[in-house]
Every structure is written in structure tokens, then in C-alpha cells.
Amino acid sequence: MANIVDTFLKIDPMDLSNTCIKKDSLKDEVAVVTGSTSNVGLGYVRAIAWAGGKVIISGRNEKAGTEAERVINAENAPGTAMFVKCDVTKEADVRNLADKAYERFGKVDILINNAMDMNLDGSVLGSTINDLTQSFAISGLGSMLTIHEFVPDMIKRKHGVVMYSTTQFHYHPPMLGGAIYCAGKAVATSVTMSLANEIGPYKENGVGVFCMIPAGVGIPGTHTNRDNVLSADTRRFGAPGFGGSIPPEANGAALVYCILNAGRLHGSGISCFDAFAAMNFPYPKPETVVNAPPMRRLTDNELTLVFKNMGPGFAE
After folding, report:
1. pTM, whole model, 2 decimals?
2. How many domains does the chain fold into?
3. C-alpha torsion angle, residues 231, 57, 223, 246 (rounded to 10)
């Protein structure tokens, strides 16, 4: 394994065998993950591949994407992963992404919209017009373009999963994410939740649509100076329930669990903390995860009128 994780991608070994996820649980499934050449997105594709799925890595960084393809194929088997350079704000790029995916694998069962530029993290008043435009283009337009390319075939086959990797609804210090970053994420979250209602009930259509919050996920240092969350019960990461940032490898495990339970999540959202608790994930210990305030599923009417409920209104 050393020759695989010894890479500039800053990764740890991927092994989910000590979780409730079975090795071939996503066998024959094909996933497209945007923004998957590093960090959160790379954790997603590596976990899906570990669980038996085929993955299309997508992003603008060709060097990182090519290396991610090498790593995943080395971890699993040749032909498991394919990198396609793609700027999700460009219709031609997204069309090319779809063409390459269907040409190689014949179908796409899972769409994970994760692309975002973390540099677009400024304030509304302090950002340039170009930054404002790009934030909405990557998250909002990018999600809609990929949905247009991949979801119709899922509906036709009555089989599919669509997930948006989201964050908080608005800028609220001390939480992470600047104003235009959060606004762009809110747009794509609304697109995703609206899509769930457009498609209709999961039991009738077989396509699960939901959002997942990778809260606290990140790489605090290089893979050579941080513990491996998936290899020893004394390890701890992230907050709450961890001691530092949650590794992308662990967050990827949460995603696989959510994909396998997409029907239950259809039309709603979940944080990685709640996913860890639901899957009885031993890293961190479940009893420490519940220190995070539990979320509740909003009614469709509440979700539709969430903008009305953004503050106290006329209340004293």
C-alpha cells in the first residue's frame, strides 16, 4: 500500500472493512463525481471504488486527476477509475464528461455534485464580480448541467442516486465558508431538493436525491504526519467526536452508506456526523458523535418556505 499512498495527493490507505459496508456493495454501479481530484471529492471516489463501483473522476486539475486515477486503479483493479478533465460551468465540457462516461461504462448510476472553488470564499461586498459569477456558475449552473446530462437516463431505467455535497445555508461565523461560497452552495442545494420533487417518490421511480454535508472534513497536514482513522481504535479526528479534521476517507465511507440508503434519504439532507451514527461507525465512537446536535427531517412545506423562516421576523 505504501507505493499507492506515497503521492502528492495527501491520502491515507482506504480500507472500509471494519465498517458495516460490504466490499461489493456497489458492484456494477457507475459513479460520476465532480470536483473529485482532491480532498472531499477524492475521498468520495476512493470509497465508492472500494465498495466495488466504477468511478469517473472529474475536475479542472489534470495533474491531480491523472494521479487520482492511478491511485484508485492501483488500490482496486485496472479500469476501475477514469479521469475526465471538466469545467462544470461549460456545457461542452459537461457534455464531453457524459460522452466519455457512457462510452467507457455504458451508463451512470450515481451522480455526486461536489465541484466548488474553495478560493471563492469572500464576502459579498469585498468580492469581485467575477468571483460572484464563478461561485454561482460552479455550484448552481454546474449542478444543473450535470443533472441534465445524467438524470434522464436514471429516470428511464428507474435506477439512480443524485447527491449534492453541500454546506451551511448562509454565512454565520464562526462556521466555515464565506458569504458567496455559502450562497453558491445554497443555490445548488435548492436545485437538488427541487429535483427530488420533480422526479417524485423513490418507491415509484427508483431514483434517490439528497444532500450530504461533509462537515469538518479536510486534510490538516500530509498523510505522513496524521493518524489513519480506518486502522486503529485509538485514532481520533474532527469535531465533534474527533480530535482534528475528519479525513476524506472516513467521509467517503459515510457517503457510501448514504448511497446504499438513498431511498430513505430521498428529498432530504444529512450530515456526515448523523451518517456515522446511523452506520454505527467505530471511528469516531458513536457515543462521541451524538455530541453533535441531531438534525430532524423538515417537512416539504418547511423546506419550501425556509426563506420565510430565516429569522425571528417581528418577534421580540
Report:
1. 0.88
2. 1
3. -60
Q: Looking at the domain assignment, is residue 98 inside a domain?
A: yes
User: Are 248 and 219 spatial neighbours (Cβ–Cβ below 8 Å)?
Assistant: yes
Task: Write the burial class of residue 130 (CB in 10 Å: 0-12 exposed, 13-18 middle, 19+ buried).
Answer: exposed
CA distance linking residue 281 with residue 283, whole number of Å: 6
Cell digits for 269? 439532507
Distances (CA, A) of 257 to 14, 51, 264: 15, 10, 11
- Which DSSP state fits 104? H
What does the alpha-carbon distance between residue 222 and residue 9 come to, in Å, rounded to a whole number? 9
Distances (CA, A) of 1 to 4, 23, 57, 75, 77: 5, 17, 21, 8, 13
Structural domain harbouring 83: 2-7+23-304
Q: What share of the chain is helix, strand, coil (3-state, %, to 5)?
A: 40, 10, 45
CATH code, domain with 134: 3.40.50.720
- The residue written with cell numbers 453533535 in the block is 292
Hey, what's the cell of 103?
462510452
Chunked into runs of 10 residues, the chain (316 residues) has average pLDDT values of 72 85 96 96 97 98 97 96 98 98 98 92 90 94 98 98 89 76 92 96 97 80 38 37 70 96 94 85 57 69 69 63
Q: In this structure, what DSSP letter does residue 18 have?
A: T
* DSSP notation for 211-267: EEE-TTB--SS-TTSS--TTT-TT---STTTSSSPBPHHHHHHHHHHHHHTHHHHTT
